[in-house]
């Protein structure tokens, strides 16, 4: 049963649909009208600006009929129909998250316990079957990383992974980069040394939000890949010492890279990044690329370094890591705003050849949403 009442001044309505109740302001409802005069039918984009809606907009009449809500707005005398389920899914009159460091409903943080169920998909299935692609992308979105097995063993195969959901983001490293031992490397990633778990390119603003690593040869001993959930790291730090969490979230670190002629990349961002409402939206951690920290007041610098040290200790804790080995034709994708990745050291014998590239998360999330839309429509 659906019921609607108008506030005495008409500035909001109260909508009840089954056990759900929510209030909606008149100006919000008018701004979110889906009639053809307000939104383009082909793409849903607004055809009017807020300046075209009277500031004194009020609801003058309302009628609820099942899943349809009909409202009339004054002073325009404009009548608009709404889908009740859409309104309830979009409601903002609900308990809000409080405190700093909360994560959204679609995110699941993890530690080494995820090793028994590493998110993965089969390349051929993901490439050819929309359902398999949807399921794999959903895992990447939830956990921040995912493997693909059974891919082609050929130069540039990583581009076929990106083609599944988006586009390559080209950087000063080119469209892709080689990851194997080099003489006089421009970056420590190109040696056989082990690397501490880190996020890539923290010196960029914005950072590439996805990284893809693709294995072409893997006969060297060692070199296992490792991932750590930066969001779980932040949650653990907050539970241990809220002051340390706050100092890393409340002050900017600085990062820089100048390893090539004509390149001097710099950024200024916190290691733990929060949205204005406290949502955890990003982690930047890369000791190799950290510049001098100059944005922390003198009286907080010792606290900052204590927090920085402890964050590194949590990242290094084996209880936080998921480790796996990639064989030729296998790859993995990682959310570079959330999940830190690392590599165990490997020997100088045998061969180890990976190729890597960057892409952006908006393409992945867009592809996932488009694949999920028919499923949601079928459930209605």
Automatic annotation (TrEMBL):
The keyword Oxidoreductase applies. GO terms for biological process: carnitine biosynthetic process. InterPro entries: AlphaKG_dependent_hydroxylases, GBBH-like_N_sf, TauD-like_sf, TauD/TfdA-like. One of its GO terms (molecular function) is 2-oxoglutarate-dependent dioxygenase activity. Residues 120-358 form the TauD/TfdA-like domain. Belongs to the gamma-BBH/TMLD family. This is TauD/TfdA family dioxygenase. CDD domains: CAS_like. Its cofactor is L-ascorbate; Fe(2+). The lineage of its organism: Bacteria, Pseudomonadati, Pseudomonadota, Alphaproteobacteria, Rhodobacterales. It comes from the Bacteria. Keywords: Dioxygenase, Iron, Metal-binding, Oxidoreductase. The keyword Iron applies.
